[in-house]
Amino acid sequence: MCIPIEPFHIASNLTQDPPDLDAMVTDEHQVGYDVDGCEYQTGYEVKEIMCSQFNKEWKEVLYLVKWEGYPEETDWTEEPYENFDEKELLREFHRRNPQAAKDKRS
Q1: What's the pLDDT band for 26 if we cut at 50, 70, 90?
Q2: Does residue 16 lie within any of the structural domains?
Q3: Is residue 4 part of a domain?
């Protein structure tokens, strides 16, 4: 069972300029584009898959990912099966959590 994570909220009365996202991209995290033209960043390493759940709206299983170097829960993201280059991470997660929601491709 996944515990819902509160979405990021933007305060309506910001007192400072928003962060410069381009300045946050380092050499270790490169920006790329997928076949649909959507921007993504590479160079992130999965520390642990925390849980999985079936998303009824998207009709697919999403995996809650804790990223290496990003320990805060607010930095964790839900990722679909196709976003994992290392499918062994998914197989290992399901060996440890046989009752967890599982993508039919894994």
Answers
A1: low
A2: no
A3: no
Beta strands at 39-42 and 46-55: parallel, antiparallel or unpaired: unpaired
Q: How far is CA 96 from CA 52, 72, 90, 93, in A?
A: 12, 23, 10, 5
pTM value > 0.70: no
H or E element, residue 22:
helix 21-24
Judge whether 100 lies within some domain. Answer: yes
| Rounded-to-integer distance, Cα 69 and Cα 23, Å | 18
First-to-last alpha carbon distance for the chain, in angstroms, is: 19
pLDDT per position as a tens digit, 36-95: 666 566 678 999 999 999 999 999 999 999 999 999 999 999 999 999 988 999 999 999
Q: Which two tokens stand for residue 68?
A: 């290496």
What three-state secondary structure class fits 96? helix
Task: Give the length of the chain.
Answer: 106
How many domains does the chain divide into? 1
Q: Is residue 80 a part of any domain in this protein? A: yes
